[in-house]
Amino acid sequence: MLSEIAIIVVRGIAIGSIFSIIAMSFNIVHGATGILNFAQGNMFVLGGFAAFFLANGAGVPLWLVMLAVSAMLVAACVTFQGWITLLPLRSSVEQDSWLISTVAASTIIGAVLLITQGPYAYNVQGIAPSFRILGVRTPGAYALAFGCMLFWFVALRLFLTRTFSGLAISALSQDFDAARAAGLPVRRLQLVAFAISGLIVGSAGYMVAPVISVTSDAGLRYVLAAVVGGIGSNLGTLIGGPLVGVVTMLTAYRIGGAYQDLASLLVLVAILMLRPQGLFGRSSARRV
Amino acid sequence: MSATAGQTMALPPAAGKRRFSSDLPQVWIGMALIALTGFGPSLVGNSYWVHTFQLVNIYIAASVFQNFLFVDAGQKSFGQGVLLGLGAYVTAIFFGLHNYPFLAAAAIGIAAAAAGGLLFALPALRVQYFHLGFVTLSAAIVFPQLLMSLDRWTNGINGIAVSMPDLQKEMVFGLSPLTLIVALYPMAALWIHYFIRRSRLGRRMRIAAISPEAARTLGIKPGVMRFIAFIIAAIGTGVCGVLYLPTVAFVSPQGFNVELSFVFFFAVVVGGRGQMLGPIVGMWIVFILPNIALAQLVEYRLLIYGVLTLVTVMLFPDGVVGTIERWRLRRSVAGRGEQAFRVDAFLDTLGAGHDATPGEDVAVEVRGGLKKFGEVVAVDRADLTVRRGEIHGLIGANGSGKTSLLNVLSGLSRLNAGSFVIDGREATRMAADRIADLGVGRTFQTPRIFSQLSLWDNLRIGIDARVGAGDPGVARLAAALEREFSEDSADLLSHGQRRLVEVMRTVLKEASIVFFDEPAAGLSQSERANFAKLVTFLSRRMGKTIVIVEHDLDLVWGVADAITVMDAGRVVATGAPAEVARDPAVQHMFVGGRRA
Q1: ipTM
Q2: What is the residue-averaged pLDDT of chain B?
Q3: DSSP H helical segments within B410-471, as ranges?
Q4: Of the candidates A101, A106, A268, which has its C-beta nearest B138's C-beta?
Q5: CA–CA distance, B358 with A139 (Å, rounded to integer)
Q6: CB distance from B44 to chain A under 8 Å?
Q7: Which terminal residue of chain A has fewer beta carbons within 10 Å of its beta carbon, N or C?
């Protein structure tokens, strides 16, 4: 019994770290552009595919090199997608247009993966050895997920408060027009934000590939879980993500068998129905 | 001056004026297109196209409701396929598995779809604009899995087959009852959309979608509007589900995956958001094109939906029909710039009114009003008394708390402490729409003018929110405005005229208490004079109580019966204009003439 609780907590927190990472990648783009990139989950899965094709069973040096390569590849994809999304936008918040183009992009990526890779789940061999925590044997990738979350949280915090680009992106999220009036290169900063979000999900997808289902249609589910954890505040998602992870794990455990996937998905939908802004989300202020 | 202006108001609409809205012609063209594709294949006896267009026409109907929900109610739902699926599956379960009569099973199916719509509507009751997309999308992801897992009731992956030979029997000209019904239903859906949009409910829904705060000051509850829209769309889409059953004769979980919801959404976008013809043209492009061109490559379909949609957003952000409509409007936009709105003409039409003098009883009273935004104190224990029928000027430097106070009084924000009374009713905790129903009207610093609506509809939303008994002068004015402006666009109005539209909205609403928020900002000298005349008329001939926040002190001193001066959130002086002008606390405001 005790070990079951340990499994639920450890794995829940680790899976939840992934939700948290995706939420953080949402936040930086949303802050800089007002856009919520629906294709972000697909980009995360792309990272997983990169791990399968570039570094499956690789040794540590190659794995590290490919980590950088994968992160940058995904960042390039996201930046390109961001560029396309920003094209028709004259101002930052013409909602309909970005909503449609990111949903369309998500559909396209999912379809391309389906056509080229088929509907199968890919198994990726991990690099990190499994370890024991609370008496439970745990795949190394779970530790990587947790570490990745902490890394990106700290890195983003430093970037947004210590670097010029980071401060400029923070300024964009405060007051878009003022930032433009102050002469900031708005479009370039927005693309930087997209690129960073790509680095985040690319690296995360690559590292946790052994413990996620790398399939063409997995993207939207991770996005959904990230939203349930709460988007809008990086600090909030640090708690919300793992909490959602534990809740879905617990649900899967209590229900068990064939229904466990469905049940945890239903729990997410139920939370979203009751609390559309997510557990620890901050709903953005409307411009009046 | 006044004579010529009077003539302007009385003139019939200029001959040959083009329509502002092409909704009605679009509905007729849509009827023709659906009739052609719905009946044509049967007449020539092509059974492939008979069947294809049966399904396409059902999908068009579902997209019509998506269009309504998306544009008229401003709700982006990615889950309309779920509602269609609920209608189809529940009908199939009761009709196909439990042998209920078809109509009874259909009624249960539609009820199930409505219940699904209710679930979507619950999060929409609160304002979270993009989160709704996630809620509906997640429902679309879960739905097929739910069908799969609940195999005790749904037959799981095997699906449910039904047979309804009676509906397929050919009558005259090769038409079967089914062909007839599935062609008539999208036509009906178009008319439903058209008539809702033209109705008071439809106008209020659109205002709530575009500008929730303006809507609330017109007595509209935006949450309720969204709720109603979701229920209407859910029932309409549920009927599509019922029709799907005899058309396809089979339901299975794969038929109702996310792809289906995306088809409805993308069809609206590609065809043209908000255009009556949009769903028809969009569905032809999004659904039929890939099905003809790549009939054997099913897996490419989703890719093509995505690419078509992305390309459309890039090249024609308004969609195919929307782009054509934009060309038409550019060529034929009707409306007059400077000459459209004439205060003297309005006053002439309103007639003589009646004598009204400010009374002694209190219309608005604030006691110790405190409003904080975080640490900033915007209104600091302010007291304000406005007598019935008077014009009360509220002045002070920028940031002194005037607009914050107006926002509190119109219910758009709440006091942290203190209270206020409107017309003798305790209103401190009232929502904006309830305060609006007490007879309060207001204007905004940035006029809320809706370019999607004709100029007349922009004014008419005032009548839609009417609280008065129906003043004959106002009725006369409304009739004249309708004659004059029903085909005009509001886009060509000058800034001053846009302000005037908002003022006229409160007149048409017959609001007894009106708050003007910097009504003269950006107005020319002559427009200011006209505005002063109008305000005086509203007070002295129509008996309205008026609170006017304004920086033009000449204007304020010219019309006001009482003046309250605010500074840093506090009321520093109040009283008759002459007294206030002598008050030492106010003297510094007049340096270099009466301008603050």
Answers
A1: 0.83
A2: 85
A3: 432-437, 455-464
A4: A268
A5: 81
A6: no
A7: N
